[in-house]
Amino acid sequence: MERLIREIVCSGQLDTAMAQEAFAKDWIAAYQRYYQKTVSLPAHTLCDSVSHKRWASFRGSGQSLRQPSSIRSQGMIVLDTSVRQSSRPFRVAVPQATIYRILNRVREAQFPDRLDGNDWRYGTDWDYMKALADYWANEYDWRKAETNLNRYPQFVARVNDYDIHFCHVKGRGPKPMPLVLTHGWPGSVFEFLEAIGPLSDPASYGGSPEDAFDVIVPSLAGYGFSSKPKGKPIGPATTAALWDHLMTGVLGYAKYGAQGGDLANAIQVQLGRTHPNSLVGLHFNGIAISAAPLPPEAEQTPEERAYVRALAAYRLTELDYNSEQRNKPQTVALALSDSPIGVAAWIVEKLKAWSDSSSREPAFTKEQVITNVMIYLVTNTIGTAAWFYRGLNEDAGALDGRVTVPTGFASSPREMTLLNPPRSALERNFNLVHYTKMSRGGHFAFWEQPEAMVADVRQFFKKLGT
Predict the structure, then answer these.
(1) Is 262 among the catalytic positions?
(2) Measured between alpha carbons, how far is 1 from 68 in angstroms, rounded to an integer?
(3) Which residue is catalytic, options 183, 245, 275, 443?
(4) Is 168 a catalytic residue?
(5) What pLDDT digit, counting tens, does each position of 324-353 carry?
(6) Catalytic one among 162, 389, 395, 434?
(7) All domains of the chain in start order, with CATH
(8) Does the reported pTM lie above 0.70?
(9) Annotation marks residue 245 as catalytic
């Protein structure tokens, strides 16, 4: 491990002495925490025993530091280790040239003509996007965001045919339960950052060590820092198999819990139907009505009939994006991949419409919005992320059968109608043992209300005796 850190620091991938020392210190600390092994290596002496001339020659030869090609092409740094050969420590380190290219595109963007009205009735608000672009070009600091993304140990593991990126934070308690948190679209692992600490180390946040979790937060294949599908979309069935192999095969857990909404709801339903023996429980903050079908109209309750009417109205105005990404994902990919402003507008509309926002802006700061957008841009994954919607058709998996795994549901008041069915529908189709009406929040539950979601997840798994 010490040799590998030296190699990265002296390879020229980090362009200042300060960056080299910060990198070394962070990874020595992460390595020691994760593997409970001591590394006695003063950061300021890392390059003393390695010839810069030798490493210049190494770089000129075209060799790599054993990084997966999909990650190497993004300019991310991956460290290999002999301690866990199936997973390699990882750190986000985007080349400056990539950042400059994105910022230049933002600064040179040609805005369309403005429609009157600033209430988002025509889609993404023109005034908000202009203000966001100005902030992005003149004030936003990706390196600050990168530091935030790197605050917890991250890894890349070869899982079946994919290099899966994930955060893995060991719980600090007598018996931490492994918990995998899964993002959806247009989100990322960034959504969960404020919840990782309270979930893994509750005592440091005023809670009990008995409630600690081992927290695993993977990037979906085709999203963020994971590798991409090769020429064919994947969906819930493949991803459920990847997640189960990651948790049981790579990380060695016998059983684990899972939490998610959005696309993750379909993945978790597949886990419940195909890998029930691996699961302690499933916690959702959104479940598609397709996984919780209602009975014939004559047998529906008044609440269920009202839901059917609300869903019909919702489909008319809010699911255009879904149809386009599901039916014509390559068109979306070609339209957006070279347009940072286009990517931001496509995502921002959903951050506003689906969040619990009472103002003209989404429920997130401009810095948060841009960081989430930048994860798609620096990895060139806005196109492959859309592929997953086609995967809902082509790689759906098991579509029928009641989910018998103990299930919890957090119903947020501003969740998408499509993903917030009546409790009665959930009870018919899931082994529902926990249901909470949240007082605040929307689709991005952990991002919007991390404290409330942490509390609800804890409460659910306590009921299961974990």
Answers:
(1) yes
(2) 18
(3) 443
(4) no
(5) 999 999 999 999 999 999 999 999 999 999
(6) 389
(7) 2-91 (no CATH), 96-140+150-466 (3.40.50.1820)
(8) yes
(9) no
